[in-house]
Every structure is written in C-alpha cells, then in structure tokens.
Design goal:
heterodimer; A: alpha+beta; Butyryl-Coa Dehydrogenase, subunit A, domain 1; Butyryl-CoA Dehydrogenase, subunit A, domain 2; Butyryl-CoA Dehydrogenase, subunit A, domain 3; 10 strands; about 55% helix; globular; B: alpha/beta; Rossmann fold; 9-stranded mixed beta sheet; two-stranded antiparallel ribbon
Chain lengths: ~400, ~260
C-alpha cells in the first residue's frame, strides 16, 4: 500500500533498508548464537545518521518525528529486533533529556547521542517495580551539591554498553508518585556499575543488565527537569517511544511473511508447491492482512502523535498492542507454514518467533496497554452519549 | 588535501545482456549504477579527507543522466561534483576519454591526488586511470589494495599483484586506481542524501575545457568497434546424471580418460 511518504521519509527507509540488508541480515544468526552486542552495526547506523533522527537539528540531529523513527525501526526490525532494540533503547534513553532536560543538559548530551558517539539507556524497571512503576525503591538524596543514588535497576536494555543512563529514583518517598525524579548517570560515575548480561529467550544481540547504585554520587545538575516530575517524564517518554516498538513488530512480521511465502513457493508436496494449497494460502493471506492493518494503524498513530503531541497515550498504546500481538501471531504462523524446517535454527523464522515474544512484554505489557486504552475510553464515554 | 575522484556511470552488470540478433547491449530498462570499483575510490577519498582534511571533488564524463552517480558520490561524503558532458564526446575510447578528463582536471585546478576505480565493468580496459596520469604528468599506482600510511607529504601503499603485493611510497601529486579490497564503502548518510539532492553540479562542455575537436569523441578515438559478438562455446560439456555416487563414478572415469 502507498502511505504517501515524503522524500525525506523515503530516504530514511532507503538508508535503514541498506543498513539492514548489508549489515544486519548477514550477521543476525551469529549475534543471536553468541549473545553478541552489535557494536559494528550500530557504528554503521551512526555513520548513516540514523541516531540523529529524533534529535532536533540545533543539536546536530535530523529533527524527525514519530513517523520518521517508526520507518527506520520497521526496516531494522525486518533484519533483527535484537539490533533494533539496542538502537531503539538508545533513543528511549535520550527522550527524557529531549523532553524535559534544560537547554544546558540538552547541549551537553544530545550532539553526541545524535552522532551515535554515545549510546543511551533508560532505567525504570526494578525487581518490584515493572508494570507498577509506583513500587520504585531506588532513591536519590541531595547531599550538598551532589545526589547520592542507591538501588538496583533490573533488565535494562543497553546496560553495560551505554554511556548515558537516564534513570528514575525516588527523591521524596512521602509524596508517592510525585516524589519520583529522573536523573542522568554516566558510565564511570563513582558507585555505579552494571551487572552481568542476562540470558534471554530472544533479542539476544541486545544487552540486558542490572544497573547497580551504591552511594553513587552525581552532580546536582544531572536532575532532568524539576524535582518530582519523574513520572510525567516517564509517561511522555513511553508514549512517544511505543510506536517504535510497534514498528519493530511490523518489520519482524514482514520478514516472517517473506520467509514463509518464499518457502511455500518452493516447497513441493503431493506434486505441487504448498503455496497452491488453500490451507497454506489462507494462512499467508491472513498474515498479510493482519500485517497491513497493523502498518496502517502504526503509521496513522505516528502521524497523529506528530500532529497532536499532547494527546497521544491512547493511540500509542493501541498501535503497540495491535502490531506486537500481530507480530507474535505472524511469526508463529510462519514457523507453522515452514513446518519442521521452520523449527530449525538454519532458518530465520525460529529466531523471529523467539524474538517476537518480547514485543508483547517490554515497554509496558500489552495488558497494561489495554488498561491505558480502557481508561481513555472510560474518560471519553463519560462525556459522550449514544446519540452523539 | 585536494582529491579528485573519476567516476563512471555503467549499466548494472546483473541485468546486462546482448540482443541475440544485433549483438548490441540491451540498454532499455536496465538500471544504471556507479561503476562498482569507483565506489571504493570515492570511499577511500572520503576517508583520506577525514584523516588529512581538504576536499573531495568527483568528476565524470558522460551523458546528462550521469549526474545520478555524481549525486550518489556526494551522498557518500564527496564535497563537489563536476560533469563533463557534450554530444561531441560521444564514441570516445580510452584515449579520447583520458584526454577529456585531463582537460577537465586542469579546469578544476590544483590537486594532490586523483583516485580512480581499477577499471569500469563495461569496457574492462583499466586504461583510463594510467592514461590520465601520463597526460597530467604525475606518477600512478594501479590496483591499490591498501593505504598503509597517509600523511601530508605522501602515501605508503600496497599494490595488489597476482602473487602477493608490492609496498610503494608515492609523493603528491599522484594518481591511484583502487581494487575492492581497499575498503567497505559506507552507507550514504541521511545528511549526505539531503545534500546530494540540493547540490548544484558544475557542468563543463567541450568548449569550457578548451578541448581540441579532433582529440575528443569518435574523431579522437583510435579504437573503433568493428563488431561485438558472443564467442562460440568451445569446450565440450558433459552433464552427469544419476545418483550422487553414480555421478562421481562417471566423473572419475571421465577424468581417467585424460591420463
């Protein structure tokens, strides 16, 4: 389908596609097998200016919007969502600075992030605070001119690989959610370390570690925005970034459909390609229909977010749920179409199916997303009657 | 450090085929690309610029649509683009081409280094680079596979040979032709693509470069193409059939007959 992309958007697609075809697809199986962080690939992305997409031009970026980043991530997702996740998590890590940081803070961090010289990570989740962000136990206490941070973050993407970490800590526990603040921690800050890499089912090219703060002292000016505004920043950050996760789902599903359809054309049983059997053809048709519907929703949501940044929670959650549930189903069906071959590691759909699962879990589970949509509906229908 | 890179637009070899009746190249519907070896030359020039400073100018002789490959080179990091284009250049062989390029280089101005691809994948002569160096009176090194050291005063290079490589030192100004082992060309950046879209390409005609009409195009070309044809198949081919073991037995028997 023609989505009427601008010249610039077509350039983004073309650039990300070339990176995916030349750098990601030939290496994805080895990265997965070896749990290897894709440093070389990320450097190539930096060279091609992909890290600059969400950063304003005044800081050396491309000044792109939600749809621009969605288009890039869709292409990367077609290659490997582990690599795509490493890239997306770096954008996620700088969003709080982009959205709430002071001019001075933006000048300090954004140019290096836009150039891909420094990677970023976003630290929210803890052992007792996942979907329920109010359970955060990491604290930051002002001591003279410095914040003293204590606590442990869990499952942080790009942990150990990033140089810039934007984290959430309680600066005033008595105020509940209004007592949370966001801070920047840098690699090498005293008292800050990363745990060992977690062993995951999928997206194994991406690094996932704990962030450990033991009397970690950072300067006062590392506070992002005002004290106590941490939750607002988190919500805005995740609302902006979720369509990117949906886009990884689009890319993964496209790749799974491509693999399954090409296989079905070649695989001969009972004297004809299995593509000719209606049972298989209908599966492929359903995969294509679901994928295109998801793409239309994700692009539409991204355009809505670019036009109405104040009102994005519902569409952001909707597109994340729909596209990632779709990706899981399409990847599973791709394995089914390919039968025993699909289940083998020699074929890429096995990895796609393992990888797809995380899309329904991270950046807010799909159950939490449905809560968001439900709550927004509840508010809308308080004002609207059946007769309009 | 002023570097000039000579590039050529060629037909994509993946899609090239001859018309079985006329034996001419079928050009309709075949996409054009930058000669692959030239892409390595552009990349190496941009790397040298990043290392030593200066500017990279890409130069092409060709029809107006050769602008596309010049823009591609800009997106990969070149700074300026010059297209030498004139109907009078049509039919040029390597002799006339190197004359034309030499004249254009003199119009562009002082240079420290000229880079070319080893050869173009259409003509496959590998003559234009060395011929251009001779016309400009500068030393040249062909088939460079690695720049070992680059400083403001000169280069230390590896020249690919059939049985290894030579190590050579060369002073500026010089001309190099490069092979594909020299680097991995970068993916054009977003900013590069934006620049490539907007940049104005300098266009030079035969008159602009002060070319002597008898030295360019068909009149300036001692090489005339009499006939293009596919060579007849000479070797005898045998296709072995049967199971793998049977095929291997047949192959061994066949090889024995040569003993």
């Amino acid at each position: 389908m023609d989505y009427f992309l601008s010249e610039e958007q077509k350039m983004i697609v073309e650039t990300a596609r070339q990176i995916t075809n030349e750098y990601i697809i030939p290496h994805r199986a080895a990265l997965d097998e070896q749990d290897k962080f894709p440093r070389t690939i990320l450097n190539a992305m930096a060279q091609a200016d992909l890290f600059g997409i969400p950063v304003p031009e005044e800081f050396g970026g491309f000044g792109g919007g939600c749809l621009d980043i969605v288009l890039a991530l869709e292409q990367l997702g077609r290659g490997c969502i582990g690599v795509g996740t490493a890239f997306a998590a770096s954008s996620l890590g700088i969003y709080p600075i982009l959205q709430a940081g002071s001019q001075e803070m933006r000048e300090r961090y954004l140019p290096d992030a836009a150039a891909g010289k420094k990677f970023a990570a976003f630290g929210l989740t803890e052992a007792n605070a996942g979907s329920d962000a109010s359970g955060i136990q990491t604290t930051a206490v002002l001591d003279g001119d410095e914040w003293v941070v204590n606590g442990t973050k869990q499952w942080i993407t790009n942990g150990g690989e990033a140089q810039i970490y934007t984290i959430v800590a309680m600066t005033d526990r008595s105020k509940g959610p209004r007592g949370a603040s966001m801070l920047v921690v840098e690699e090498g800050d005293p008292g800050f370390s990363c745990g060992p890499k977690e062993k995951k089912m999928g997206i194994r090219a991406s690094s996932t570690t704990e962030l450990i703060f033991k009397d970690c002292r950072i300067p006062n000016d590392r506070l992002i925005g005002r004290k106590g505004t941490g939750f607002i920043t988190i919500m805005k950050t995740l609302d902006s970034s979720r369509p990117g996760i949906a886009a990884l789902g689009l890319g993964l599903a496209q790749a799974a459909l491509d693999e399954a359809a090409c296989y079905a054309k070649q695989r001969v049983q009972f004297g004809k390609p299995i593509f000719a059997f209606q049972a298989v053809q209908h599966m492929l048709a359903d995969m294509a229909i679901q994928l295109e519907a998801a793409r239309a929703l994700v692009y539409g949501a991204a355009r809505h977010i670019d036009a109405h940044p104040q009102n994005m929670s519902k569409v952001s959650s909707m597109c994340k749920v729909f596209a990632t549930d779709m990706a899981m189903k399409v990847a599973t069906d791709a394995v089914q179409v390919m039968g025993g071959y699909g289940y083998m590691r020699e074929y890429p759909v096995e990895k796609m199916m393992r990888d797809a699962k995380i899309l329904q879990i991270y950046e807010g589970t799909n159950q939490i997303q449905r809560n968001v949509v439900g709550q927004e509906l509840n508010k809308e229908y308080a004002r609207v009657s059946v007769n309009g | 450090m002023n570097i000039i890179v000579c590039i050529k637009q060629v037909l994509d070899a993946k899609d090239v085929h001859l018309d079985p009746v006329t034996n001419n190249l079928v050009r309709e519907g075949v996409p054009s690309i930058m000669n692959p070896y030239d892409q390595y030359a552009v990349e190496e020039a941009v790397r040298l610029k990043e290392l030593l400073g200066g500017e990279v100018t890409v130069l092409s002789m060709g029809p107006p649509q050769a602008e596309e490959v010049l823009r591609q080179a800009i997106s990969c990091g070149a700074d300026h683009a010059v297209l030498v284009s004139d109907r009078a250049f049509a039919g040029a062989d390597t002799w006339a081409t190197s004359y034309t390029l030499a004249k254009a280089v003199q119009v562009i101005g002082a240079f420290d280094l000229i880079l070319c691809g080893k050869q173009a994948i259409d003509g496959d002569t590998a003559q234009v680079g060395p011929s251009l160096a001779l016309r400009l009176g500068v030393p040249y090194v062909t088939c460079v596979q690695k720049v070992r050291q680059a400083t403001d005063s000169g280069l230390i290079l590896e020249r690919m040979m059939d049985d290894g490589y030579d190590v050579l030192a060369v002073d500026y100004p010089a001309l190099l032709t490069v092979v594909k082992d020299i680097n991995k060309p970068r993916v054009p950046s977003l900013k590069g693509k934006m620049r490539a879209k907007k940049i104005e390409i300098r266009k030079l005609t035969a008159a602009d470069i002060g070319a002597d009409p008898v030295c360019i195009g068909l009149p300036g070309s001692p090489t005339q193409v009499e006939k293009v044809f596919s060579p007849p198949v000479r070797s005898q081919r045998t296709v072995f059939a049967g199971s793998l073991d049977e095929q291997i037995d047949q192959l061994v028997d066949s090889l024995k007959s040569y003993l």
